[in-house]
User: Fold WAP domain-containing protein from Pleurodeles waltl.
Amino acid sequence: MKTAGCYLLVLALLLGPVFQICAADKPGSCPFAGVCDLLSFDVRCNGDESCGGTQKCCRNLCTILCLDAVL
Assistant:
């Protein structure tokens, strides 16, 4: 059990910068993302400025992509 906790902590520290890509540049927040298997992680946007209209760059399970903001 301790090993799994250590892996999760290390994963959180390593992925912190990835989730900073999705900083709140536009109003609203991203919808709840759920849990992801990191072996299939995919990045499709690099910040809110890479999304059209009012969409935000958000994590959605195993993908970072443009989604409609939750206001």
In short: Residues 35 and 61 are 6 Å apart (CA to CA).
